[in-house]
Amino acid sequence: MNRRIEVLLMMLMVIVILLMVANLALFVRMNQLQRQVIQSLAPFQRPTGLPQGAKAPFFQLVDTTGQEVSLQDFSGQRVLLAFISPSCPACQQVYPALKEFRKAHTDVAVLVISRGNQEENQRIAAELSMPILNGTEAVMQEYQVPGFPFFFLRNFKIGMFPAPADPGVYPDTYCWDYPAYWACYCPTGQRWELWCHRYCNEPDNCPTGCCDISCWWVEVGSCSCE
Burial, 203: exposed, middle or buried (Cβ in 10 Å; 0-12, 13-18, 19+)? Predict the structure, then answer.
């Protein structure tokens, strides 16, 4: 009898060990499958832009005048990279703000990188009165551009203000000013804010997007990147 019990216990222990090994193998296999699924979905995941504090990837592009422009040419300078697309309606709304910012802040190099073809980029260059860099898919991927327009400020810490509340619709017109973004230049602690003016004429009779929006940068004081 004792011998039979010992054999049964031994068999039970073997079964338990086999189950533990099977569970461990299943756990390892599930982790492998999870990694494979994540890797297969990577091309479909929407980029979110470079993380704050990341080093700007190097690039060398040709502008609309035929000149080669390298990010290294602006080493040590404050640089605003503006990624745009000719097919982007929102990009057209920021063109006036880009022109005003470039005019008001001559110490900041403004580089506009477009995904348009040569003819489209030439038209944008004429509108902005500045050369446009002919962007490539590789540069867009390196900067993890999620959409257009998209801005990258080298040596800056940036943030977004909460969306403004609609002040209400009046019989003929309504408009208001609101802050959209703030930027802190880390080396000197200078703070800028991007303010926008919204003006709508007869909003009840207009389709969506009938309002005019103009934006400008204002230096408002000091800040810290810590």
Answer: middle
- Rounded Cα–Cα distance for residues 66 and 117 (Å): 14
Describe the crossing of helices 89-104 and 118-128 by its angle, rounded to 10 degrees. Answer: 50
Give the model confidence (pLDDT) of 12-71 as tens digits. Answer: 787 877 777 777 777 777 767 666 655 655 554 555 677 766 778 889 999 999 999 998
> How far, in Å, CA of 151 to CA of 148, rounded?
9
Continuous segment of H or E residues that includes residue 97: helix 89-104
Supply 110's token pair.
């403004």
The widest CA-to-CA distance across the chain, in whole angstroms, is 100
Q: Which helix (H) or strand (E) is 21 found in, with range?
A: helix 2-41
Helix (H) and strand (E) counts in the chain: 4, 10
Token readout for 140 is 């867009």
- Residues 6 or more apart whose CB falls under 8 angstroms from that of 100 comprise 216, 217
Taking phi over 0 as left and psi of -120 to 50 as alpha, with beta for the rest, 172 belongs to alpha
Question: Residue 66: its pLDDT value, please?
Answer: 93
